[in-house]
Amino acid sequence: MARYAVIHGGVVQNHALADDVFAAAQGWVPAGDSQVGDRWDGHAFVPAPADLDALKAAKNDEINAARLAANFSHFEHAGKQIACDQLSRSDIDGTNGFVALYGALPPGWPGGWKAIDNTYVAIADVAAWKAFYASMFAAGNANFAHAQALKEALAAAATAEEVAAIGWGMEAP
Predict the structure, then answer these.
(1) End-to-end CA separation in angstroms for the chain
(2) 60 and 39 part of one domain
(3) Best CA proximity match to 115, nearest among 73, 86, 84, 81
(4) At what angle do helices 86-102 and 126-156 cross, to 10 degrees?
(5) Residues 33 and 107 in one domain
(6) pLDDT (tens digit, 9 = 90+) per residue, 118-129?
(7) Are residues 42 and 57 in the same domain?
């Protein structure tokens, strides 16, 4: 008994175990390392082409996830890295809401924001707060622009290899 490829219309539909005589009578060929969906050209198996649309959809999701992760990691302000995880972002947005409503920093304001290295960035007044918040916005906007550039490259990709080569860490074309 050996493993054979069951082929219809030049495409491997299934695999079967059979003896040589039965397999030959059915028109089956030795399966080798073929997979269901591979093409049979009469001499060799050719891997099935990748579903480019499915690969592009998965890569688009990967780009979106990378942008979200970047937005919720950190941003630079006054030469310091500022945490922008979900908790930190909630605190930043809450403070910004207060500043937007009242035009002043909240009561008990500590005079700055703690950076990732546990030092403080001075934020003494509303103008300094606006600059701080603008730094966060700029980082998010840069992440958006990078994602859009990657998606433009993705739209232009014509092969599975071109799709696979696109990733968050690359320079946008």
Answers:
(1) 54
(2) no
(3) 81
(4) 130
(5) no
(6) 999 999 999 999
(7) no
